[in-house]
Design goal:
Blueprint (H helix, E strand, L loop, with lengths): L3 E5 L4 H5 L12 H13 L7 E4 L3 H14 L3 E3 L32 H17 L5 E5 L1 H10 L15 E4 L9 E4 L15
Parallel strand pairs: 1-4, 2-3, 2-4
Antiparallel strand pairs: 1-5, 5-6
Helix pairs in contact: 2-3, 4-5
């Protein structure tokens, strides 16, 4: 696999309200739209040749903002949809007892991880590169987990472009780092949803 870029969607209404969106569609806020435009500026010199997005509106709208500035189409993949939290969707993130809980009517971490990786693996293997994946905090966790970086509970900030770089020696973990520092989110916005 080759290096690729990842972008979590801009701030959604669920992020703003501190609730779990999961598979529920949540629109971008005005701040989220601005974050998507800032991410497009930050990614302008990255040489992106392909954009694949979750079909959920918060991710797709973010991907479209980047695609519009780069003159590229956006492909969607239903496997990039955020983890389904079942009965916990719409509830406060702060009330969730554990990320690894198995929510009633939803996906366990293992089921979600395997489903999302089954979508990510062929996306990463296909050309052309550089690739940009626009999705959700859960997808970022799956990528980190499967590329040897371990589970990251904090997730990733909204609309902060991240670069994944493969190791020079097989068997070592990948590296992940921000492409650039963008405008920080308001303190009231939770880091994960």
């Amino acid at each position: 696999m080759t290096p690729f870029l990842f972008l979590r969607h801009g701030q959604s209404t669920a992020n703003r309200d501190g609730v779990i969106a999961g598979s529920t569609d949540a629109a971008l806020t005005e701040l989220g739209e601005a974050q998507a435009r800032e991410a497009a500026i930050a990614l302008a010199g990255a040489g992106i040749r392909r954009i694949v997005s979750s079909p959920q509106s918060r991710a797709l709208r973010t991907a479209e903002a980047v695609a519009e500035s780069l003159g590229l189409p956006v492909a969607t993949d239903p496997g990039l949809v955020e983890r389904h939290w079942g009965a916990w969707e719409g509830r406060l993130v702060a009330d969730r007892p554990d990320y690894f809980m198995v929510p009633e009517g939803g996906e366990s971490w293992e089921v979600f991880r395997d489903r999302a990786w089954a979508a990510c693996e062929p996306i990463l293997a296909a050309g052309p590169a550089p690739l940009l994946i626009v999705a959700h905090a859960g997808i970022m966790r799956v990528l980190r987990s499967r590329l040897g970086l371990g589970f990251e509970g904090k997730g990733v900030a909204n609309a902060l472009p991240m670069r994944f770089t493969p190791p020079e020696t097989a068997g070592l973990p990948w590296r992940v780092e921000p492409v650039t520092k963008l405008q920080p989110e308001p303190a009231s916005t939770p880091a994960i949803v």
